[in-house]
Design goal:
About 40% of the residues lie in helices and about 5% in strands. The protein has about 150 residues and is mainly α. It has a single domain, classed as Spore Coat Polysaccharide Biosynthesis Protein SpsA, Chain A. A three-stranded antiparallel sheet has the order 1-3-2, with helices on both faces. The radius of gyration is 17 Å and the shape is globular. About 10% of the residues are buried.
Length: about 150
């Protein structure tokens, strides 16, 4: 059976802050094949498998403030014409790279580089998902598709 044809497995968790790092490490060493794709295709796999009305694409190095999902849902529920919500990203850290990245992000506001992370699943599916041919800034091109 090809890797793409392998059944997907969901791993639900609840109140697992203390044990989740160990669980994630154990997932990394599994012999069962996982999607070995670029980000856009991996996001499309997640989009298709998602069960909820909304989808949040969160990178593994991101941290959410406590109310961000609630705020996104409130925006979406308040206006059915909104298809996606931008969650501004703030880079933190004292390293030179972090400082450069933070300065760079100052120039993203109100541009397509600062792309949505929170989507209505239906329109995201209808738009065809992320373009797997795009390796960087795939979020920006997806925002164009959603807008159309």
């Amino acid at each position: 059976m090809k890797e793409r044809d392998m059944p997907l497995i969901s791993l639900p968790t609840y109140n697992s802050a203390r044990t989740l790092p160990l669980a994630l490490r154990s997932i990394e060493i599994q012999t069962y094949p996982r999607a070995d794709t670029e980000r856009a295709e991996a996001k499309n796999i997640g989009l298709k498998a998602a069960k909820g009305q909304y989808v949040l694409f969160l990178d593994s190095d991101m941290e959410l403030t406590p109310t961000v999902i609630q705020e996104c849902v409130k925006l979406m529920e308040g206006s059915p014409t909104i298809g996606a919500v931008v969650i501004p990203e703030i880079t933190v850290g004292n390293s030179l790279v972090a400082k450069i990245r933070s300065f760079e992000r100052l120039h993203y506001e109100n541009t397509y580089i600062e792309s949505p992370r929170f989507y209505r699943k239906g329109p995201a599916i209808q738009a065809g998902g992320f373009d797997p041919e795009i390796v960087f800034y795939e979020e920006a091109t997806f925002a164009y598709k959603i807008e159309e």
